[in-house]
């Protein structure tokens, strides 16, 4: 029996367990299970490995995508640059970290990009933002980070004016603002400055259309949520775990 699973805390919001249970059934995959492993602290990780000797692969979610790094033997090039891991492969006694958010985000974004999407605003500065930044760099799209507080290379929401919004026609929300159950929240953007030239991408997938996306659609912007990215990153994890 091969055991796969998800570590994070808490895991009440987890998409992965249901996805893989359905995948195993649909594709007739035998002798495989996918479990949630909620660990209250990353210090519990070695104990989990001892308790689950049949682990063949893990996904990693909030708040451990960065904290997991010291426990791994090696990193993929993308994970090493981003310094965030959401997929671990166990092979030949070694634990290798990958970032499949990069794969999921890139594949789901590409069909929506237009020639004028040359500059982006990235809302939030956490681990998910790092994966988005990596993809934007790969695609040659310049970006500006946006947060509530200014920092080196980070502007505030309050500083966004009409000129800034017009120049940055791709806006990616990597923050949790608007995620269920706080569906009445949205990043504090000057939404009146949006137009049909804009593409709004929200990494959130629950609800299907966040207030951020609703406000963009109301101004004629193209909108995309994170559901397809989630599926693509999960499938990429499966490919990594089973790569001979």
UniProtKB/TrEMBL annotation:
<dbReference type="InterPro" id="IPR013708">
    <property type="entry name" value="Shikimate_DH-bd_N"/>
</dbReference>
<dbReference type="Pfam" id="PF08501">
    <property type="entry name" value="Shikimate_dh_N"/>
</dbReference>
<comment type="pathway">
    <text>Metabolic intermediate biosynthesis; chorismate biosynthesis; chorismate from D-erythrose 4-phosphate and phosphoenolpyruvate: step 4/7.</text>
</comment>
<keyword id="KW-0028">Amino-acid biosynthesis</keyword>
<dbReference type="InterPro" id="IPR046346">
    <property type="entry name" value="Aminoacid_DH-like_N_sf"/>
</dbReference>
<dbReference type="InterPro" id="IPR036291">
    <property type="entry name" value="NAD(P)-bd_dom_sf"/>
</dbReference>
<dbReference type="InterPro" id="IPR022893">
    <property type="entry name" value="Shikimate_DH_fam"/>
</dbReference>
<keyword id="KW-0560">Oxidoreductase</keyword>
<feature type="domain" description="Shikimate dehydrogenase substrate binding N-terminal">
    <location>
        <begin position="6"/>
        <end position="88"/>
    </location>
</feature>
<keyword id="KW-0057">Aromatic amino acid biosynthesis</keyword>
<protein>
    <submittedName>
        <fullName>Shikimate dehydrogenase</fullName>
    </submittedName>
</protein>
């Amino acid at each position: 029996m091969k055991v796969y699973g998800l570590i994070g805390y808490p895991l009440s919001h987890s998409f992965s367990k249901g996805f893989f249970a359905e995948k195993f059934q649909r594709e007739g995959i035998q002798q495989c299970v996918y479990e949630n492993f909620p660990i209250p602290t990353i210090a519990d990780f070695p104990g989990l490995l001892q308790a689950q000797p049949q682990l063949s692969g893990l996904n990693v979610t909030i708040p451990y995508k960065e904290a997991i790094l010291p426990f791994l033997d090696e990193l993929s090039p993308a994970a090493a640059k981003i310094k965030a891991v959401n997929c671990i492969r166990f092979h030949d006694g070694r634990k290798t970290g990958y970032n499949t958010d990069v794969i999921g985000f890139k594949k789901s974004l590409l069909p929506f990009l237009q020639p004028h999407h040359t500059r982006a605003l990235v809302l939030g500065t956490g681990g998910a933002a790092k994966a988005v930044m990596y993809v934007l760099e790969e695609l040659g799209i310049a970006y500006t980070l946006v947060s509530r507080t200014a920092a080196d290379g980070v502007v505030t929401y309050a500083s966004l004016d009409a000129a800034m919004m017009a120049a940055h026609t791709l806006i990616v929300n990597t923050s949790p603002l608007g995620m269920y159950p706080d569906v009445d929240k949205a990043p504090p953007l000057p939404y009146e400055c949006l137009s049909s030239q804009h593409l709004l991408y929200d990494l959130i997938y629950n609800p299907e259309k966040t207030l951020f996306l609703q406000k963009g659609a109301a101004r004629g912007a193209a909108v995309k949520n994170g559901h397809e990215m989630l599926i693509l990153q999960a499938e990429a994890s499966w490919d990594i775990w089973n790569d001979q």
